[in-house]
Design a protein that fits this description.
2 copies of one chain form a homodimer. Chain A has 11 helices and 21 strands. With 387 residues, chain A is of the alpha+beta class. In chain A, strands 10, 11, 12, 13, 14, 15, 16, 18 and 20 form a 9-stranded antiparallel β-sheet that branches. Chain A has a 5-stranded parallel β-sheet with strand order 3-2-1-4-5, sandwiched between helices. In chain A, strands 6-9-7-8 form a 4-stranded antiparallel β-sheet. In chain A, strand 14 and strand 15 (261-267) form a beta hairpin. The first copy, chain A, is globular and about 60 Å long. Chains A and B meet through helix 1, strand 17, helix 10 and strand 18 of A and helix 1, strand 17, helix 10 and strand 18 of B.
Chain lengths: 387, 387
C-alpha cells in the first residue's frame, strides 16, 4: 500500500475515544487522512480528525454512510454495527479487523466457544440464558458471571459468592465460570498484517481496581520466567493465527497455580494494557496497528526500559468539570509522563488519562507507581486547591 | 500553571510547519488547546490545530490579532514579527522565548556580538555591510560569508574560496569568518523553564548535505569522550543562562582540532537536530519545550538507545506531487521509524519528512543509516514505480 504515504489515503475509525486519539497521534507520522465516527459531540478525537462525523456506531445506515468515504476502516471500540462493516467489506472497502471477528468477540459466549473449538485453553464455563439459569447453578458457588454482550470497562462481570448475590445477577444471556485463584493476570499485545507477518510484545501484568473491576495500573514486562513469557506469547499468536487476524489485538490471560495459561478474553483493537508501549517500546501498539492495517511491515516490539502505567480515573463521588489532583507533584518525579484524553467532565472511575513511568530499576519503578496510583486522580475542578 | 491540564489553555504557535506539527503531537497529551498562524494554506499543522489562522508571521497587525486569543505564545520559526510579540508580552500574554531573544537570534551579527560580549567562545568574525565590504577582505580568502538576517535551511551561507566568488556574494549586512577545519559539528538541545530549572540532551553529530548545506543525517549521541560531551553540555547551558532563556534551544557548535568548542549559532525553538529525541529519549524536544513554556517540571533527557536520524529531502530535479522512493524497503529494516510532514508538493532539498533509526549496536546503526540516506528521498509521484 505504497500510496498510503503520498495520496490522501482515508482511514475511517469507528469510535472517537482515547484509543482513537492515540491512534491519530501515530497516524500523523504516516500522512494518513483520518475520519472519525462517534456519537459524542466532545469526543477526544474530534479536534485532531480531518473529518469528524457525529453519529451512532450501532446504526447500520450511519456506519454505511460513514464508510463510503473511507479507503480503510478500523475500530477503537468493538460495540459497532458489524452488518454495516460486512456490507462495506463486500463493497470493496478494506475493513480490519474482519467484521466477522469483531462480531464474534462482541459476544463473550461466542468467544469462549471459539477458544474451545480451536483447542485454545480457557477456563471451563457454562452458558446461561437468563437469571434463572444462573440461579440453578447455586451448588457451584462461588462463581464468576459474565454478560454475553455489551460488557466494557469492568461492567458486565459479577462475582457471585452467596445465594443472595443470585437475586441481582444480570438477567440476560451470559456465561458462568468457576471462581478459581489465579497467580497472575497478564495481557499480551500482538499484531498480524495481511501478509501473515506477526509481532508480539512482552506480557504485561495487570493490577485491577478492587471496586471498579478495571485495570488500575500495570507493570511491563510482567515478572515471569522466560519460559512462561514465551508460552504466553506463543498462545497469543496461536489465537491470531486461528482468527486469520489483521491488526493489533490484546489477549488477556490468567496464569494458573500449576503454571499454565488460560485465555480470559481478547480485544480486537488497541487496549488499555498497551498504553505503555508509546513510551517504553520501539513501536507503540498504535503504530503497530496502523502498520498492520495499512499492509506495511510490522515494527520492532523491543521494550527498551521497564515501565509502569497508571490509569487516571475519576474519583468516586466526583462528577463535573475535571481537574487532576497531584498531577504536578507526579510530574516532578523523574521518569513520569502524562497522557490526558481531553475529557472535560469527570465521573466516578471514568478513564481520564494515564501516566507512564520509565525506570531502568524495576524496584524503583514499582515504588513510584504505587505512589502515583495512591495519589493521582481526576476530581471536580472547583475542589482543587490551586498551587 | 495547574490550569494547563483542565482549562482550555490556548497555546498559540507562530509557524505551521513540521516543527509545529510535532509540537502538536506532544501537546495532545497535555490537553493543550492549539492555535496556529501560518501563511500557507496547506501548512503541515493545519489538520491538527484547534484553530488555524492563515496569515503572515511578519505582519504586525496579523500577529497582534492572532495573539489576542492565546494565553501562551511560542514560535516554531524565528522569522516572525517580534515587535508584535513584545507588545503582546507587554499586554500580559506569556511569550516564550522572550521576543528580545528571538530578535537578537534573527540577526547573526547580533548573535555573534552577544557571544563575544558574554565570553562565550565563537569563531573570530568581521562584520560586513555589503558586497564591497566583503570584497575588501580578499587577502583573507578562503572565508565563510553569512547573511545577517533571513538565513534558513542552508540559505544565507556562502563559502568564498576564490576572488571570482567575491562577485556573487550577498549584497547585504552580514559577517565573515575564517574558513577553518573543524573536527566535528554537533548540536545540543537544552531547555530551561521559568523557575530556572535546566535540562540538556546528549550532543548529536550532524552530517551536512554537501550541496544543500543543511543537515542530511545525524548520529546521537555524538562519538565524543565523556569530558568533551560534558564541556559541550556546559557551554550550551551557559548560553541559556546568559539569555535568561525559557523554552527549548538548539545550540550548534564546532569542535576545533585542539579540543575546544566554538558556538556556531543557536535556534530558539525545536530543531531538526532534535528529531531523534521523539524515539530515542524519555522526553522529546517537543514535550520538553511544552513543559518549559507551561512552567512545568522538565522531563528526563535520558537517551535509551543509540539513534540516527535521516532527513527525507526532495530529490534534485523533482518538483510536484510527492512520493517517497524506497520508503517501503526502508520500513522493512529493523528499527526504522518514519515521520512524514504532510507536504503534498516536493521540490529540491525540501524537508519532506525524516526517519529515526534505533539500534543498541552503534556500528549496525551507522551501516543502516548510510543505506537509508543513500536511497530514501522524495520524488514526484508519477515517477514512482508502485510495488
Amino acid at each position: 500500500m505504497q500510496q498510503a504515504f503520498y495520496r490522501d489515503l482515508r482511514l475511517g475509525i469507528l469510535g472517537g475515544g482515547q484509543l482513537g486519539r492515540m491512534l491519530i497521534q501515530a497516524a500523523i507520522d504516516y500522512n494518513v487522512h483520518i475520519r472519525v465516527l462517534d456519537p459524542g459531540a466532545d469526543a477526544p478525537c474530534r479536534p485532531y480528525a480531518h473529518t469528524f462525523v457525529q453519529g451512532s456506531l450501532r446504526d447500520y445506515n450511519t456506519v454505511m454512510a460513514f464508510g463510503q468515504d473511507c479507503d480503510v476502516i478500523t475500530i477503537e471500540i468493538e460495540h459497532v454495527n458489524t452488518e454495516a462493516l460486512a456490507a462495506l467489506q463486500a463493497a470493496g472497502k478494506q475493513v480490519f479487523p474482519d467484521p466477522a471477528v469483531i462480531r464474534m468477540i462482541q459476544d463473550k459466549r461466542l468467544q469462549k466457544q471459539f477458544y474451545q473449538a480451536h483447542g485454545l485453553p480457557t477456563a471451563a464455563f457454562t452458558l446461561t440464558d437468563d437469571r434463572a439459569a444462573v440461579a440453578a447453578l447455586r451448588d457451584r458457588l462461588p462463581l464468576v458471571h459474565k454478560l454475553g454482550r455489551e460488557g466494557y470497562d469492568g461492567r458486565g462481570v459479577q462475582v457471585l459468592r452467596t445465594e443472595q448475590d443470585l437475586n441481582t445477577t444480570f438477567d440476560a444471556p451470559g456465561l458462568v465460570e468457576e471462581l478459581v485463584p489465579f497467580v497472575k493476570e497478564v495481557a499480551i499485545l500482538a499484531a498480524r498484517n495481511p501478509a501473515g507477518q506477526t509481532a508480539v510484545f512482552d506480557p504485561v501484568e495487570m493490577m485491577f481496581h478492587p471496586e471498579a473491576n478495571l485495570v488500575e495500573y500495570l507493570f511491563a514486562p510482567a515478572d515471569l520466567s522466560p519460559a512462561l513469557a514465551d508460552s504466553a506469547r506463543t498462545l497469543a499468536l496461536r489465537l491470531l493465527e486461528a482468527l486469520d487476524y489483521v491488526g493489533i489485538m490484546a489477549v488477556e490471560m490468567f496464569l494458573t497455580p500449576d503454571g499454565t495459561w488460560l485465555i480470559n478474553e481478547a480485544a480486537p483493537r488497541p487496549h488499555n494494557s498497551g498504553h505503555h508501549t508509546i513510551r517504553a517500546c520501539d513501536t507503540s501498539q498504535y503504530e503497530q496497528h496502523l502498520r498492520a492495517i495499512l499492509g506495511l511491515p510490522l515494527g520492532s516490539t523491543r521494550q527498551h526500559t521497564p515501565a509502569a502505567m497508571v490509569n487516571i480515573l475519576g474519583a468516586p463521588g466526583h462528577t463535573g468539570p475535571a481537574a487532576y489532583a497531584y498531577l504536578r507533584e507526579v510530574l516532578e518525579m523523574e521518569g513520569v509522563y502524562p497522557h490526558l484524553y481531553g475529557k472535560t467532565e469527570t465521573k466516578p472511575f471514568r478513564k481520564m488519562g494515564h501516566v507512564t513511568l520509565l525506570d531502568p530499576d524495576p524496584l524503583q519503578l514499582r515504588a513510584r507507581a504505587l505512589f502515583v496510583k495512591d495519589h493521582l486522580q481526576a476530581i471536580v475542578a472547583s475542589e482543587l486547591p490551586l498551587p
